[in-house]
Design a protein that fits this description.
By secondary structure, the protein is of the alpha/beta class. Helices cover 43% and strands 15% of the residues. It has a single domain, classed as Glycoside hydrolase/deacetylase (TIM Barrel). The strands form two sheets. Strands 1, 2, 3, 4, 5, 8, 9 and 10 form an eight-stranded parallel sheet that branches. Strands 6-7 form a two-stranded antiparallel ribbon. The longest helix is centred in the middle third of the chain and has 18 residues. It starts with a strand and ends with a helix.
């Protein structure tokens, strides 16, 4: 089997600086996909950018937890607080108490997808801010809206735990989960959600790789990317990243800030792209994934 890799930059539309950093990674040819966040007000002309980079897939980063809704507040009252803003982690409590109306979640997610569609963006896949789309009700609303907008792909949540030494072996994974028992449920749940989405007709990668889940590899990202290039398993893998140029808007709304500049620098390094070519890793996007699944 060949080795395929989707490199997805999360958060296009979050801030102008994030957008600029992501576009720089497109220019380098290393990042093959992005997920757009429509409700922060900085989406700009994503349709024009997609035409400029036809080899990059543009998905949607559904968001029901941070910022303000695109829908009139009165039509999504179960999703927001008295200030008219999303509830953050408080959304889960409302879902558990059955206080969230699924039709309101679908209304807001539809409004977010419509902005991209109205710009002429062909939406390739969907995921969620902080992966909260995996929560009950939220996931069902996402599935319904994605089908309405003919979105064919979804982020895989079959996590392959990677460190700066490579993928964890069985004994190492066992040790990791014994130390992090809560992640047994969240990672298992993610796998079940991925399988459920595939049964519903969506396509997903075989594995999801994330720096920093099993060690502090997010602090030495260059080393992480080098190890990944030489040890990536066969099949189709996906990794998400967060390039960007820090700006005041980002500093006021996120904890992960200066590290984005480091990611941008690494993901625009020609020597790193050459390393992946040397190791015969084919960089693909979500539309390529759909084609491979049809073979």
């Amino acid at each position: 089997m060949a080795k395929y890799l989707i490199i997805n930059a999360d958060g296009y539309g979050f801030t102008p600086g994030v957008n600029d950093g992501i576009v720089e990674t497109f220019k380098s040819g290393f990042v093959t996909s992005t997920s757009c966040t429509p409700n922060f007000g900085f989406l700009g002309d994503a349709g024009r950018v997609q035409k400029q980079f036809p080899d990059v897939s543009f998905g949607i980063h559904f968001n029901l937890s941070v910022g303000e809704p695109l829908s009139p507040v009165g039509t999504v009252r179960s999703l927001v607080g008295e200030d008219g803003k999303f509830l953050g982690s408080g959304l889960l409590g409302r879902i558990v108490r059955r206080e969230v109306r699924i039709e309101e979640a679908e209304r807001e997610l539809s409004a977010q997808a419509a902005i991209l569609a109205d710009q002429g963006v062909k939406i390739s896949h969907w995921d969620g801010h902080q992966n909260k789309h995996l929560w009950p009700l939220y996931f069902g609303a996402g599935v319904s809206v994605a089908k309405i907008f003919n979105i064919g792909g979804i982020r895989s949540h079959r996590r392959l735990l990677f460190t700066n030494s490579g993928a964890l072996q069985f004994s190492e994974k066992l040790s990791y989960y014994l130390k992090n028992p809560k992640r047994v449920l969240t990672h298992l749940g993610g796998r079940l959600r991925t399988a459920s989405a595939e049964r519903s007709g969506f396509v997903a990668a075989d594995n999801l790789i994330t720096p920093g889940y099993a060690d502090d590899s997010h602090k030495s990202l260059r080393r992480f990317w080098e190890v990944l290039a030489t040890t990536l398993p066969e099949g189709i893998s996906e990794i998400y990243c967060h390039p960007g140029f820090p700006d005041e808007i980002l500093r006021n709304n996120a904890k992960y800030v200066d590290q984005r500049a480091d990611e941008t620098r690494i993901l625009t390094d020609p020597s790193l792209l050459e390393l992946y070519k040397t190791n015969k890793i084919e960089l693909i996007n979500f539309f390529d994934l759909a084609s491979l699944r049809r073979r």
